[in-house]
Amino acid sequence: MIVCHCQCITDHDINAAIDWMRASDPKTIVTPGKVFRSLGKRADCGDCMTLFLDTMRANANLEVPPDLQNLRPQHRKDKTSCKATPRSSNT
Ligand code: FES
């Protein structure tokens, strides 16, 4: 199935690119831009992005490597009060 009509990219091309990237570097984070570049192409109109991403998400090799997951700091549970001093009013 053709996913990107501007660049004639099929779902097979996308899956092959993801599988190749994962095999060559298990820690890589696969992005749509990397898939386009690995195929020697670049996005044109961008109308395919929804289907492009859905196709990528269906590939089991898209998953972020376990040691790179949860790198974002968790929300702080201790809500400290605001340290700003209250404004003095002249009223
Ligand atoms: S349809 Fe993919 S860039 Fe236009």
Which secondary structure elements does this structure contain, and how are they paired or packed?
Elements: E1 2-4, E2 9-10, H1 11-24, H2 32-38, H3 49-57
Antiparallel strand pairs: 1-2
The structure holds FE2/S2 (inorganic) cluster.
Residues 4-7, 43-48 line the site of FE2/S2 (inorganic) cluster (FES).
Explained architecture:
The chain has 91 residues and is mostly helical. It has one domain. It has helices spanning 11-24, 32-38, 49-57; strands at 2-4, 9-10. The chain has a two-stranded antiparallel ribbon with strand order 1-2. A hairpin with a 4-residue loop joins strand 1 and strand 2. The N and C termini lie far apart (71 Å). The protein binds FE2/S2 (inorganic) cluster. The site of FE2/S2 (inorganic) cluster has 10 residues, from loops. FE2/S2 (inorganic) cluster binds next to loops.
What structural class is derived from the secondary structure elements? mainly alpha
Largest sheet: 2 strands, antiparallel
When the domains are counted, the total is 1
Pattern of helices and strands? EEHHH
Task: Output mean pLDDT.
Answer: 87
**Uncertain stretches of 5 or more adjacent residues:** none
InterPro entries: BFD-like_2Fe2S-bd_dom_sf
Biased composition (Polar residues): 82-91
Region (Disordered): 64-91
Protein name: (2Fe-2S)-binding protein
